[in-house]
Every structure is written in C-alpha cells, then in structure tokens.
Amino acid sequence: MKARIARILIFLCASGFGTAVVRAQQAPAMPMGEAHTPATPAGPLKIIFGDKSATWTAATLAALPHISVAVHNEHTKADETYSGVPLIALLTPLGVSDKPRGKELRLYVVAAGSDGYEVVYSIGEITPDVHDATVIVADTEDGKPIAADGPLKLVATGEKRPARWVRNLVAIDVKTAE
Questions:
Q1: Strand 67-73 and strand 52-56: pairing?
Q2: Under 8 Å CB-to-CB from 100, ≥6 apart: which residues?
Q3: What span, in angstroms and rounded, lies between the C-alpha atoms of 9 and 1?
Q4: For the chain, how many helices (H) and strands (E)?
Q5: d(Cα 159, Cα 161) in Å, to the nearest integer?
Q6: Is the model's pLDDT at 125 over the cut of 70?
Q7: Strand positions, DSSP E, the chain
Q8: Where are the domains of the chain?
Q9: What is the CATH number of domain 35-176?
Q10: Residue 120, C-beta contacts closer than 8 angstroms, at least 6 positions apart
Q11: Percentage of the chain exceeding pLDDT 70
C-alpha cells in the first residue's frame, strides 16, 4: 500500500500537479481593499418566491420607503451609511410573512450578484420580528447612488465582516428547506 501511494505522489509531482498546488498556496495575498475586482454590470433585481416574482431597478426601488443603516466595513476599514428598502418589505408582497412562525421559519433566501457570488440568509435573519439585525437592498451609500458596487447592494447590520453583503445584486430566490 505504501509503495502505491509513493507511486501516485511521484506521478503527481512529475506531472506538475504538486508544483501548481505549491504555487497557488504561495501566491501573494492582496489586501482586502485591493482584492475587489470589477463586477459584471448588473441588470434589474429579480425576486422569486414560488410562482410569484417581482423585478426592481434602482428607479423603482427609489419610490419605496427607505431606511438608513450605519455599518463598519471590515474590508475597507471604514464606517459606511447605506440607505435602502428592508429586504422583508420586498418579500411580503410575494407572500412571505413578516412575522414567520412554525413551518414558515424553514424559508431561506439565496441572494446573487451579477458576478455569480451567492449568499444565504434564513427568513428569521431578515425579519425584525425574529432578529435584531437589518438586511436591506441598498441603493445609496453615504448619500450617493451606489456606483462601483451597484446599482443595488445587499447590506446587513450586525455582521463582523461584509462576507454576506452582495454587490451588483441581481437575484433573490426564496426557497424552503426540506
């Protein structure tokens, strides 16, 4: 058995696989602020829940009541203020309860950016009736329309770092855990 493992390792090293792994691990790390690559331009935001859907643009979202949230962005090491619509306010017209109970707590959302980045929030995390944090679909940052990360961005308060924020937000799919 040891001889077989040794032959496999020799083959992998001879084929260049081992050096590729070493090179990938030794690649210089970019500081978080510089790792931000330009995203694919975003189109409208499409929200789906079952057989119902809604489409939002920055212009149509601007007509809705907004709230502001102040957050610290650990990547940029800066305090930022976003204004937007609470995510739950966009989901309730599609039939999602703003006061989920029982089986309704099996719902979760998958939010996606135009670059393919996806994150998951449980329905409880986006509902003020259950959770203290706030999740918004933001259209302004520090009083200006979101430019490089927009036009729409999913932002959440109460997170240690913005790993579940989604820039260039294009899709939100509400699903049920089995």
A1: unpaired
A2: 107, 123, 124, 127, 129, 130
A3: 13
A4: 4, 10
A5: 5
A6: yes
A7: 45-49, 52-56, 67-73, 78-86, 107-113, 118-122, 135-141, 144-145, 153-156, 169-176
A8: 1-30, 35-176
A9: 3.90.420.10
A10: 108, 109, 110, 111, 164
A11: 77
Asked if the model's pLDDT at residue 94 lies above 90, the reply is yes
Answer for the pair 162, 147: CB distance below 8 angstroms, yes or no: no
Copy the structure tokens of residue 166.
Answer: 């989604």
Write out pLDDT tens, residues 36-63: 555 566 789 999 999 999 999 999 999 9
Is the pLDDT assigned to residue 150 strictly greater than 90?
Answer: no
pLDDT of residue 153: 96
Query: Which tens digit of pLDDT belongs to each residue from 99-113?
Result: 999 999 999 999 999
What's this model's pTM, rounded to 2 decimal places? 0.77
Residue 87 · residue 164 · CB < 8 Å? no
Mean of per-residue pLDDT scores for the chain: 83
Q: Torsion-angle region of residue 127: left (phi > 0), alpha (psi -120 to 50) or beta?
A: beta
Q: Are 67 and 84 in contact (CB under 8 A)?
A: yes
Please, which contacts does 155-163 make with residues 24 or more away whose CB atoms are closer than 8 Å?
155/69, 155/71, 155/82, 155/84, 156/121, 156/125, 157/69, 157/71, 157/133, 158/132, 158/133, 158/134, 159/71, 159/133, 160/74, 161/74, 161/75, 162/71, 162/73, 162/74, 162/75, 163/119
